[in-house]
Amino acid sequence: MAAEGPLVVTADLMVDAEELRWRFSRASGPGGQGVNTTDSRVELSWTPEGSASVGRLPPALQERLTARLAGRLVQGALVVVASEHRAQLRNREAARDRLAAQLRHALAPPPPRRRATRPTRGSVERRLQGKRVRSGVKAGRRRGRDAGWS
Question: What pLDDT is attached to residue 97?
């Protein structure tokens, strides 16, 4: 994925490059002495509110996106950080990939509801057998009735 141009998330959502805000700083980690001079840490932020990209989505997807991203927003912006690579370009690509993955996850339809089913006869018998075994183990630990146990 290129570090420039629009961020293609799904067929429905493509975030314009102008909506992405980049910040660079020095990162800790691999890089030797170059880590002290190179701004390789990348912060990518995107504000969904008022975004033209979100405005192009159907209303149902807009609501789903805003509801699912609500807990991840920092002062109204979704922020992604990447600093695991030595090169700034690779960190930029990693940040774009992470942002796209978070947006894809937020746009995904909810899983189908689970239909309640009865437990099988075998699973009930295994559970009861396990309870009998455990009861026997605990019964072996008990002292006689004369020790104050009832």
Answer: 93
Contact 23, 41 (CB under 8 A): no
**Distance between CA atoms of residues 48 and 12, nearest Å:** 15
Structure tokens at 84: 């695991």
What is the fold, at CATH topology level, of the domain defined by 7-107? Double Stranded RNA Binding Domain (3.30.160)
- How confident is residue 124, by pLDDT bands cut at 50, 70 and 90? very high
Q: How many helices and strands in the chain, by DSSP H and E?
A: 4, 6
**pLDDT band at residue 144 under the 50/70/90 scheme:** low
The whole-angstrom separation of Cα 53 and Cα 99 is 14
The span from the CA of 122 to the CA of 128, in Å, is 10
**pLDDT > 90 fraction of the chain, expressed in percent and rounded:** 34
* Distances from the Cα of 113 to the Cα of 2, 50, 66, 109, 116, angstroms: 38, 32, 22, 12, 9
What CA–CA distance (Å, rounded) separates 70 from 49?
11
- Domain spans of the chain, in order of start: 7-107
